Amino acid sequence: MNATDFSSLKLHPNLLKNLTILGYDLMTPIQKLSLPVILSGKDVIGQGKTGSGKTVAFGLGLLQKLDVKLFKLQSIVLCPTRELANQVAVEIQKLARVINNIKVVVLCGGMSFGLQIDSLRHGVHVVVGTPGRIEEHLRKGTLKLSYINTLVLDEADRMLDMGFQESVDNIIETMPTNRQTLLFSATCLDTITNITQRVMRSPIMVKVPLINERSTIKQYFYKINTDNERMMALRLLLAKYKPESSLVFCNTKRDAQKVANELVYYGFYALAIHGDLDQRERDQALIRFSNKSVSILVATDVAARGLDIDSLDMVINFDIAHDDQVHIHRIGRTGRAGHFGIACTLYSNRETYKLDTLKLGTGDDIILDSLPSKHYLNNPIKKPSMITLKIDGGKKHKLRPGDIVGGLTGKKKEITFNQIGKINVLSQWSYVAVNSNFVKTALKKIRYDKLKGRSFKVRILS
């Protein structure tokens, strides 16, 4: 038996069987290092970037010890952002689909407090959420943590960076001390020493070398003479490489929106995500980017935290990062799972001094390159292959992803499963990505052929 096989672990047979069905046969480095320790019941501090597989590691750990017959909250996962909390909850639900009657609830801001109270009233096993909203539930007495046996702090470094220290402390004070605590961080563990010393018991530290994880990333640095040249440089890089999905980082919310607007003006398919957007706008931007109906997402570091996008081709630092750890986290979003990725950074004369810091932080050679020729701007801009449809029906209308797939494919098979992309079912609305060549057919089928016997309003999201 291979030591990297999940079958080498002492997991419930149903969990192992489900892992095989999901295609999770071999453990990633962070899983191989952390899972045996997690399953032994010890506290764990783990360092691994987004996409390294840490969610599966702590998800399996909390599911292994879960008592389904005890309809009490037993595990809680704290995340810095709503986006990450939703993604973690989906992954845990996937891992837990072989366990009957398990209930996972997401508690985040920007969502109906009343609906969350209703979900908690009917019993829950696992809660995933942001510190602010969970603290609010504790204050109002709608959440009890007296049966918690597993606490997970995911992206702990960013939670502290975002000012959640006091909320996290208040939450931890209300739960049993004889719990297991699992803490994961994407960047340097030194930044979280204070919290680990206070809330953990003799933790075991596991760390995946960042340089190995970045071996499939090619880094390029481009010098610009003035800040006014940044937009031209960005256009040239996008025109040359034509990435199917690329993440552009800006240091401020204002710049993120401005850059996205200018890219759209020049014909690119781009959206911005930052703290000034409301929850609906954030949700829609993330959905359209993750389902490949928008190819460029312009983001700030905080807004991009927790993004879990498969096969991200390219990262571009429109603004150079403030420090090497932020730079490492940015570029680590491409080149994942063995895929090749490109990371490009723009810098000006006054920022040249930062290059040595970045080189020391990443351990990589800095490749200084010349900007592509302007003749690339003559090339046609590649349109995304998918288009997102917004359906005016969601979980409150008992709509499920399977209902949408069934309604689109139907008996006539005018649309096949391969022409349908990601489906996101929220409380009031649902979003489905459809191949652009079949959009008219999809609109017609939803409007007139009905889903679950009902007609729903539907429109193209743009």
From TrEMBL:
What would be one Gene Ontology cellular-component term for the protein?
cytosol
Q: Provide the GO MF annotations for this entry.
A: ATP binding; hydrolase activity; nucleic acid binding; RNA helicase activity
> What is an example of a Pfam family matching this protein?
Helicase_C
Extract the coiled-coil ranges from the record.
none
Q: Where is the DEAD-box RNA helicase Q domain?
A: 4-32
The Helicase C-terminal domain is annotated at 216-385
Question: InterPro entries attached here?
Answer: DbpA/CsdA_RNA-bd_dom (IPR005580), DEAD/DEAH_box_helicase_dom (IPR011545), DEAD/DEAH_RhlB (IPR044742), DEAD_box_RNA_helicase (IPR050079), Helicase_ATP-bd (IPR014001), Helicase_C-like (IPR001650), Nucleotide-bd_a/b_plait_sf (IPR012677), P-loop_NTPase (IPR027417)
SUPFAM superfamilies the UniProt entry points to:
P-loop containing nucleoside triphosphate hydrolases
Tree of life domain: Bacteria
Q: Which UniProt keywords are listed?
A: ATP-binding, Helicase, Hydrolase, Nucleotide-binding
Q: Where is this motif: Q motif?
A: 4-32
Look up the signal peptide feature and give its range.
none
- PANTHER family given in the database record: ATP-DEPENDENT RNA HELICASE DBPA, ATP-DEPENDENT RNA HELICASE RHLE-RELATED
Protein name, per record: ATP-dependent RNA helicase DbpA
Tell me which species this is from.
Vesicomyosocius okutanii subsp. Calyptogena okutanii (strain HA)
